[in-house]
Amino acid sequence: MKATDATSMARAGKVKWALFNPKTYATILYLLLSLPLGIIYLTLAITGLVLSICLTPIFIGIPLFFGVAKLLNGIVHFEQSMIRQILGLPAPSASHTYHQPSEAGENWLKRMVKGFEGALFIRNLLLVLLRFVTGIVFFVVMVTFLSLGLGFIALPAVHIILMNELQLDILENSLFSYFHINWTYNQQYLLYVGVGLILFWIALRVVNGLMQIQRRIMYVDELYQQPSVAPMEAPIHAPAQSQYYEYQEAYPTQGMMQPAHSEL
What we know:
Elements: H1 2-13, H2 22-54, H3 61-87, H4 108-114, H5 118-165, H6 175-178, H7 185-217, H8 222-225, H9 238-250, H10 254-263
């Protein structure tokens, strides 16, 4: 069942018909914001870690370090929830996000120390660093592909405007002239628009592929693959039932004496 659920979640997040799917354009907005968000995440992480190390001798750096760990965990959860919202994935159930309640009387520092995990902290820190790198790379790749597609589509309109306003023919020494192909401007326009549409469709597919890579990098599907936590209410009545049977075994004859007294 777990493998089936993970496969269904993976299929639910994939985008079909990229040109007419709103998920594609939400992904474009996400990748456009990935560059500034990656810079903000990296700045907060590095600044917090450096300050916590520098302020450790005066004991302010210790709670600051655990605060940075909580901040990194919040950043990773925020990115995961954003990707789920864009791809239309359901939120993880409560059993996947269950945590043991903190004991009464514990202050905030004890709760932060108790909830700290070294492996999770290192993973979140590496994810924030990788988020910064992928933010730059994905932004450049997306802008390059989209610019090529939109540039070919807009080429006829740009050529007409330049011809009418500045008498500048940017298609005078085009590729067709080198091969002595005497195509009219209208024929060239149709070719450029067709090539632009194909490149734009390829760019949208690349954008969706980058989103799937980001989804795997940020461990979005990990929450669906975790084992569910057993409910805590099930063993509540077990002690009372065992005490009842212990009472019967300790006093087996008291229940038999009641009819005799009643007859008297």
